[in-house]
Amino acid sequence: MIVIADSSALVALLICKSLSLLDTLFGDVKVPQAVYEEVCIN
Predict the structure, then answer these.
(1) What is the CA radius of gyration of the chain?
(2) Which residues pair with 3 in a beta bridge?
(3) What pTM was estimated for this model as a whole?
(4) What phi and psi values does residue 30 have, to the nearest 5 degrees?
């Protein structure tokens, strides 16, 4: 399991179109609500 504690990691992977690497490498990825909101909600 990996915990994404900062949105910069998600944004960097999104820009590189490599977000699927998280699933491939770690399987179980946890994203705190605050990080989710920062990345997904305008």
Answers:
(1) 10
(2) 30
(3) 0.71
(4) -110, 135
Task: Map tokens 């491939």 to a residue.
Answer: 24
Residue type present at position 34: A
2: β partners: 29
Q: Give the start-to-end residue ranges of the domains of the chain.
A: 2-40
42 residues of the chain, pLDDT tens digit each: 788 888 998 899 999 999 999 888 888 888 889 989 998 886
Q: DSSP 3-state assignment of 10?
A: helix
Residue labelled with tokens 């909101």: 37
E-strand stretches of the chain: 2-3, 29-30
